[in-house]
């Protein structure tokens, strides 16, 4: 009985996240109706309150799901980039480029910060930070990066990618802003490289 109840709760939670994702991407968070959202999957406001506390709680769950997918897509896009350093750069550039995705732009980069506050405090961003810290630590140990505080470097790299994506998403002309943001991220990150040869190979000298 308990397992069946837990399965039902998990199923309802998944339905509500999917419904919220559709509604927030299409209409935006503020304009989305809780009654319409829940009715679209055969549930009630009570189910939403039970699972997420309120509408903002549902947004947090949706943002976590989409932002987590962004990180996975960025890692996948960087898989064939070459060295660990080039993969790190490619991952950041891929994350920034996702600001052009309408769903990502609306849910994660516009409504997320507006209604959930500073993205650096989101669990999904903390997960990204921890993964970047591991990569930075390896690069420093291998001599590819200058000896710098691991957390400081990881926070700056993650923050730069996130803020570049936020800038692209909020701009009036995202297509023209994207290459500027990507170029600046590339140049800023290059300052962490330790070797002249590595800097030249990446076009930073």
N-end to C-end Cα span? 66 Å
Fraction of residues in helices? over 70%
Mean pLDDT: 90
Give, in order, the helices and strands: HHHHHHHHHH
- Any idea what the radius of gyration is? 20 Å
Question: In this structure, how is the largest beta sheet organized?
Answer: none
Helical element count? 10
In short:
This protein has 205 residues and is mostly helical. 76% of the residues lie in helices and 0% in strands.
Task: Write up what this structure looks like.
The chain has helices at 2-27, 34-39, 45-52, 55-78, 84-97, 102-116, 123-141, 150-170, 174-190, 196-201. It is mainly alpha-helical. Helix 3 (45-52) packs across helix 4, helix 5 (84-97) packs parallel to helix 8 (150-170) and helix 6 (102-116) packs across helix 8. The model has no long low-confidence stretch (mean pLDDT 90).
Question: Topology of this protein?
Answer:
Elements: H1 2-27, H2 34-39, H3 45-52, H4 55-78, H5 84-97, H6 102-116, H7 123-141, H8 150-170, H9 174-190, H10 196-201
Which terms summarize this structure?
single chain; 205 residues; mainly alpha; 76% helix; elongated
């Amino acid at each position: 009985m308990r397992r069946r109840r837990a399965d039902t709760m998990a199923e309802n939670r998944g339905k509500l996240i999917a419904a919220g994702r559709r509604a927030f991407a299409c209409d935006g968070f503020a304009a989305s109706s809780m009654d319409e959202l829940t009715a679209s999957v055969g549930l009630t406001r009570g189910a939403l309150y039970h699972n997420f506390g309120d509408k903002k709680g549902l947004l947090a769950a949706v943002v976590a799901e989409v932002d987590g997918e962004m990180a996975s897509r960025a890692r996948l896009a960087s898989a064939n980039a070459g060295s660990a350093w080039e993969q790190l750069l490619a991952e950041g550039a891929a994350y920034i480029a996702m600001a052009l995705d309408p769903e990502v732009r609306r849910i994660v980069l516009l409504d997320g910060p507006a209604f959930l506050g500073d993205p650096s405090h989101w669990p999904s961003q903390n997960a990204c930070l921890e993964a970047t810290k591991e990569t930075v630590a390896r690069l420093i140990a291998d001599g590819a990066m200058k000896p710098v505080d691991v957390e400081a470097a990881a926070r700056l790299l993650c923050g730069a990618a996130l803020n570049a994506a936020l800038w692209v998403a909020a701009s009036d002309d995202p297509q023209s802003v994207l290459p500027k943001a990507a170029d600046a991220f590339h140049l800023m990150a290059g300052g962490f490289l330790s070797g002249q040869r590595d800097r030249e190979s990446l076009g930073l000298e």
